[in-house]
Amino acid sequence: MASTSDFRNGLCIEFNGQLFSIVQFQHVKPGKGPAFVRTKLKNVKTGKVIDNTFSAGVKVNTVRIERRPHQYLYQDDMGYNFMHTETFEQVVIEETMISNPGLLKEGMVLEINFHAETETPLTVDMPEKVTLEVTYAEPSEKGNTASSTALKPVTVETGAQIMVPLFINEGDIIKVDTSNNAYVERVKK
User: What's the CATH code of the domain at 111?
Assistant: First the structure.
């Protein structure tokens, strides 16, 4: 249990039966009336941010969340299989917990957030950018660059389709932003 005086950015609390992380907080002492704490809370599972006001001194349940490095192994009918990089314990994660499963590559190391008391996985944090090889690309036609932002679809080694500039060819290695599946740059071999 903690009170509003213990609030800090990143503190994870249980609120309305769900887990939230404090993104921002502000203690307010108005001229009239009792003090309160204005907060922005981010839902740990869905990522949705809400505003909430707590009366000063209110008790809340804190939750300890641990980030553990795991290596992606493979996908089967049970879900996505990961292995802890130090203890070699394996865990199966369902697709809804992963923000962009189409960009997962075997051997990739990710951070998985666990509820420390119950040992249940909560979310999988994808790296900001991933490097992938282009396995299929349509040949670009000469003169097909009427606009400076001409793009074509390619397939990368994970099977995902990414829109890239026309100069990208099969066999090229590219960086992809995992938040929006956007092409970032071509990587030199």
Answer: 2.40.50.140
